[in-house]
Amino acid sequence: MEPVDDLSATLARAQRGDEDAFRLLYRSVQPGLCRYLRVLVGQDAEDVASEAWLQITRDLASFRGDADGFRAWTATIGRNRALDHLRHRRRRPVAEAPAEWFPERPAPDDTAGAAIEATATDAALALIATLPRDQAEAVVLRAVVGLDAKAAAAVLGKRPGAVRTAAYRALRTLADRLGGRV
Length: 182
Prior knowledge:
The chain is mostly helical. It has eight helices and no strands. It has helices at about 5-15, 20-40, 45-60, 65-90, 110-130, 135-145, 150-155, 160-180. Helix 2 crosses helix 3 and helix 2 (about 20-40) crosses helix 4. The longest helix has 25 residues, at about 65-90.
């Protein structure tokens, strides 16, 4: 994946219906959004992200703002879909199907490389998920999604100072838990 040099220009083109620009926008924002959602809803993150992208796609033309505002907007939509998902799951718990029910199919990509990368990411996100929710959300929005304190505060419905404090406490807690393993 190539980095998008000017996400604001790409956003403007996507809003005018340019499919290639939308593809670049999606590839730029989706990984951080999924990591954020993984902290909130665990293994259901990709499903929740799909629901979020349906709304993002539907409302993209009416969005007003720059690239940072877009990231904050997508994180807000993702968070709202995650909270809806958690409420729904509490009302109707889902029984998990055993792996034996599914036929074996080889993966089309480098499974070993993907597994190593996913394990490291999963371990980091699992550690973050052990933090109090406000701290976990603050650190993921700031460090993974790349929002500044003001944008993260808008997503969380808090003041920027509260988000900075929560992220700072989260990072100190994580450093203490890791001991000298960094």
